[in-house]
Amino acid sequence: MSWQENLIENGLPSIALTALFIAATSIVTLVCVRVVNRIMLRLIDRQKQVSSGNATILAFCRYLAIAALYFTGFAVIVSNIPALSAGMNKLMAAGGVLAVVGGLASQEALGSIVSGMMILAFKPFVIGDVVRCVDNDISGVVEEITLHHTAIRTYENKRVIVPNSVMNNSIIENADYGDSRVCAFLEIGVTYESDIARAKELLAQEIARQPDFLDVRTPEQVAAGVSLVQVVVLTLAESAVTLRASLWAKDNGTAFSLKCTVQENIKKIYEQEGIEIAYPHVVVVQKGKGSP
Questions:
Q1: Whole-number Å distance between alpha carbons of 145 and 131
Q2: CATH class assigned to 182-273
Q3: Comparing 123-174 with 182-273, is the CATH topology the same?
Q4: Which end of the chain is more exposed for a tag (fewer CB within 10 A), N or C?
Q5: For residues 52 and 179, which has the higher predicted lDDT (pLDDT)?
Q6: Residue 114: CA count within 13 A, CB half-sphere
Q7: Where are the alpha helices (DSSP H) in the chain?
Q8: Are 196 and 241 in contact (CB under 8 A)?
């Protein structure tokens, strides 16, 4: 005699037994999910300090494990309750129509899951990378890659949720792929009356003295006397000579701060040296009364 039959003979109603079984199975499932989730999160935090690629794989496996536990708990409940089991058998008998309807309804979701697996396998980006989705003009840091979507934290500290199918089919600009160093271009226009050579020299000196600026020259370039900072005349515009300087930094955030600092400092230096930063001028010619 099974334990269920024994409990029923002792007076416990069948419906109460079923409810007790469902509750017990649900509690065990939730506890297992909670334990696995905590363990996986700790492993992910540790791997973030060592390898972003491993952290990405673990984050994806975390969702797979949680989904598997929920599915197992549901399957145990259904298989041990005759009424539910019979209902599932009937649904499976009519599975042809349901499969077509379900397939059409879940096509996008399944596509995102498959795309997530492809992202995990080929690693165009991992957790912690600074990326830009060119098609949608979304830029930020990859925070999470789930079964369905990728979460990106923008520079405004907002979370953008992008389906994996969109990420997999988009052109992704990854600032940390292979080499995290970033070159930011700083363009400044000076007037035609200014000393261009002196303006280039002052700009190069200001950039070179910044502690965040990186020397990316090869030993051969250093031996050949290539300048530490490259400053060139980019264009001869209508009212300005545009100078462009290359600012190398260790990452995207540092490059942005470096560019802002140099812009502020070079304005003060140019003012002291008598070099005028160009801006649009409007010349108004007023004709006299006798003019035609």
A1: 13
A2: alpha beta
A3: no
A4: C
A5: 179
A6: 7
A7: 3-9, 14-50, 52-80, 82-93, 95-105, 107-122, 164-169, 196-208, 219-223, 252-273
A8: yes
Length of the chain (residues) = 292
The pLDDT confidence band at residue 15, using thresholds 50, 70 and 90, is low
pLDDT at res. 85 = 58
CA–CA separation, 39 and 70 (whole Å): 17
- Select from 241, 218, 238, 236 the least CA-distant residue to 228: 218
Task: Map tokens 């059409």 to a residue.
Answer: 104
Quick: pLDDT tens for 62-105: 878 888 888 888 887 777 766 665 555 555 555 555 555 555 55
207 φ/ψ sector (left φ>0, alpha ψ -120 to 50, else beta) = alpha
Residue-range domain boundaries for the chain = 3-93, 123-174, 182-273
pLDDT in tens, 126-166: 888 888 888 888 889 998 888 788 999 998 889 999 988 88
Locate 271 and state its tokens: 């003012």
Amino acid type, 96: G
Contact between 147 and 99 under an 8 Å Cβ cutoff? The reply is no
Strand partners, 212: none
Which architecture does CATH list for 123-174? Roll (2.30)
Q: Which two tokens stand for residue 88?
A: 């599932």
45 to each of 39, 116, 127, 132, how far by Cα in Å?
10, 20, 11, 24
